[in-house]
Write a structure and sequence with these properties.
The strands form 3 sheets. Strands 1, 2, 3, 4, 5 and 6 form a 6-stranded parallel sheet that branches. The protein has a 6-stranded antiparallel sheet with strand order 10-9-12-7-8-11. Strands 15-14-13-16-17 form a 5-stranded parallel sheet, sandwiched between helices. The protein is 35% helix and 23% strand. It is globular and about 65 Å long.
Length: 452
């Protein structure tokens, strides 16, 4: 055997030995994980997981977790944080989930739904006992749709339901104490725990207060679309504070309420909105938009309260942010941009769409001033005679740059119409990013939406 042949044989022997060692190490790690998982599975920890768009389900989940305080270990997680390892090491779980729109998962539960509830996963959850609190609104056809989807999906993976899903309706007023008490008595879990000694109160909520219509400005004279107005409401009580991303809930005649994204920062005593006038086939106007854009006179009064919207809250200005929206969705994005402009050096990119470039340049002078202060602005007009396109087309045209922003940690804020714009934006993101990048965007809560 030649010297080169002996050297090659030695290299192959070493490589084979290294491979056997590596396989042995992986097998040891796998068995260790299984052993540790089994040990953790028996420690009595209760999993309380929530999927919440506006914070109600999260608040109720936190109250449920507090019931076990000092008596049993509790793990409180958003649903997207619940992975295969968590489920493998959990024997008892409570899921508190709301339904977003027509049967959809909230954004902080969407990744879980895609991974666990599509029928493609084979994980055995026969060791898991669970309950579901399903929050929804009977105004939607798919009442508590996601809660029931979660319930059935877990059953299909072998998990054992303790009780049928407990439903709660938003338009009838969620009653956390009643819901929790019903779960306690129906589940029969840990009957030796002293639940009744703990007083659980519903989260504090702002009250309706009088606000005065002080300004109404048409933004799109001659537009092929419906009229859109910049609305200013002035508080008659105080100067309320709110966070960027919060929502103004207005109450009109007969107790009818409508919600609008707040377009400005707090501290001035006024709330600014961008409202499109809705007109039915018979010529009648929508309850909320009709009053704000046409029926009310200046100085008329409307009842308003601030509604928290934590799923759309801002982040530190040193984190880059991409803002995507169309039409009146500019309102929710504007508040974010105004806040970030207070911090020189912040990186913001606005991608905004409307119909006609000559008629629908909402807040044109203000948007140009943002550009002068460093905000990147990309526009799309669906009826542009030379280059008709939508916001998703702009995203795809800037795919490489957009991907780089997201890979470097940027958040994506989306505000506007659910069925058209928001779905198109989501499809574009899934084309621009690979599956790992897209799921990371969701799980890390860097994909924030205020859609309607």
């Amino acid at each position: 055997m030649s010297e080169s042949e002996r050297l090659l044989l030695a290299i192959l022997t070493i490589a084979l030995y290294s491979l056997l060692c590596l396989l042995s190490w992986f097998n040891y790690q796998r068995k260790s994980r299984q052993k540790n998982a089994q040990m953790r599975r028996d420690d009595g920890t209760i999993l309380v997981a929530y999927a919440s768009q506006t914070g109600t389900a999260e608040s109720i989940a936190r109250q449920c977790a507090a019931l076990f305080d000092g008596q049993l270990p509790v793990q409180l997680l958003s649903l997207n944080q619940v992975n295969e390892d968590v489920l493998a090491t959990t024997r008892q779980a409570l899921f508190v989930v709301s339904t977003y729109g027509e049967g959809e998962a909230p954004d902080n539960g969407a990744a879980f739904a895609k991974h666990f509830l599509t029928g493609s996963l084979q994980q055995d959850l026969s060791h898991l006992q669970f309950s579901v609190m399903a929050l929804g609104d009977k105004l939607y056809q798919q009442f508590c749709g996601f809660g029931h989807q979660l319930y059935l999906g877990l059953c299909q993976l072998g998990a054992l339901p303790i009780i049928e899903p407990l439903e709660s309706c938003a338009s009838e007023g969620h009653r956390p104490q009643a819901l929790i008490s019903k779960w306690q008595s129906a589940s029969g879990l840990h009957s030796d725990l002293v639940f009744e000694q703990q007083q659980i109160s519903p989260p504090a909520e702002n009250q309706f207060e009088p606000w005065q219509l002080s300004q109404r400005q048409l933004l799109n004279q001659g537009s092929p679309g419906a009229d859109a107005y910049f609305i200013t409401l002035r508080s008659l009580v105080n100067r309320p504070e709110w966070r960027v991303g919060d929502i103004a809930e207005l109450q009109f005649s007969r107790g009818v309420t409508r919600q609008y994204s707040i377009a400005n920062l707090s501290g001035t005593g006024v709330i600014e909105l961008i409202v499109r006038q809705h007109q039915f086939a018979d010529g009648s106007l929508g309850v909320g938009s009709g009053w704000l854009t046409h029926l009310a006179g200046l100085n008329d009064i409307v009842e308003l309260k601030i509604k928290p919207n934590p799923a759309f809250y801002a982040v530190d200005a040193d984190i880059p942010a991409i803002f995507i929206g169309s039409g009146t969705g500019l309102a929710g994005l504007r508040a974010h941009i105004l806040q970030r402009l207070q911090y020189p050096g912040s990186r913001s990119w606005l991608i905004f769409g409307e119909r006609d470039p000559d008629k629908d340049a909402f807040l044109g002078d203000e948007v140009r001033s943002w550009q002068q202060q460093g905000v990147i602005v990309s526009k799309a007009f669906s009826r542009d005679k030379t280059c008709p396109r939508y916001v998703q087309d702009v995203m795809l045209a800037h795919a490489d740059n957009l991907r780089q922003w997201i890979v470097n940690g940027a958040l994506v804020f989306v505000c506007g119409n659910r069925k058209g714009m928001a779905q198109g934006v989501d499809n574009a993101l899934q084309q621009i990013l690979d599956e790992t990048q897209y799921q990371a965007l969701i799980i890390q809560q860097r994909y924030r939406r205020d859609i309607y």
